[in-house]
Design a protein that fits this description.
mainly beta; Neuraminidase; five-stranded antiparallel β-sheet; 1 helix; 30 strands
Length: about 400
Amino acid sequence: MKNTALLSLTFLVIACTSKEGAPNISSLHAPTGSQASLPHLFTGEDNNLYLSWVEKGDSNMVTLYYATMKNDSWSTPESIASGTDWFVNWADYPMIAVDKEGNMVAHFLAKSSSGTYSYDVNVMYKPTGGKWIGPVIPHTDGTPTEHGFTTLLPQNDGTFLVAWLDGRNTSTTRHEGHDMHESGGAMTIRSAVLDMQGNLTQEVELDNRVCDCCQTAGALTSAGPAIAYRDRSAYEIRDMAMVRWKNGSWTEPTNASIDNWHITGCPVNGPRLSAIENTLGMAWFTAANGQPKVNVRFSSDAGETFGNTIEVATETVGRVDLAMIDSSSAAVSWLAANDTASYIMTCRVNTDGTKSAPLIVTQTSASRASGFPQLTRWKNKNYFAWTHVDENTTAVKMAVVEE
């Protein structure tokens, strides 16, 4: 079966690159240096393309960089912050966000004690035309516990919403994606608002029991921000949940997927959100009933209700991303893997449930070092970035798919 899947994937490469009218894939130069990894690729609210990444140097030095693409060429990379005490993780990677006025925020994780999983979210901010300032720690508990899997969401009023997983109620005895919090409480998700003077307001708990090490996601709809994350019930059901800003406060958490996935450890796979006005798309990974899948749902009312679940892929380990193309379709990406090969895949999914044939973007590694592939929509094309792993070296690679 797995060899058959590999042959099917190979056939897709041939079919999608030779059939008249099929999407065209081309490589794109990445502005990164040596030992680069953990790319974060996105389209800013100012309609420019941004890439951030980390580079490892000597003596445990790690530097977070970013570059901007304008007029089809990259700007000179700029360093945001450096440190020797960072917590650098394949799944919990730094990222940046940009609002429509060009204000910027970025985050990285730094150790707060000698404990392996004791670290803080550190947020840098850069007013339009200014310099990077910070860091600011958005959580005020001061506990030597896990804080990470951050979402940075521009609100286009000079402030940014910051959401993160917060372990203040937990012990620190967790390792590699398995929850070990018997002696402590549950992981929570919290949020706060940061302005361009470094002021933090509105710190609040959004959910008091969530999955411990899955990415969070956010999107700004016409009705306000929405945050999605992997929930965790008392019975170890770990499906997608969502909160929305409505009428001046956060809603109670609601189910955003109903997979009924029972799993006693963290699957290290969070959701992805993208919005155009009040049309909201969500992609996620599940392995309910032992069947791995990538699914998509759409909402036409900013996440208050969702349509039917659309199955996009099986034979997958997840690591999804999603970018709305227009109000009736989205581009989705995921990592397909079997015993012999791994591929970054993509397709278009429509709100009516139809979808295009899957397309291979590139062959890659399914190792943790390869991280989470990135997808964004810019100038009517789909842009991809990923970490290429070659023995003891890493590099950021990029591609463009033009439909």
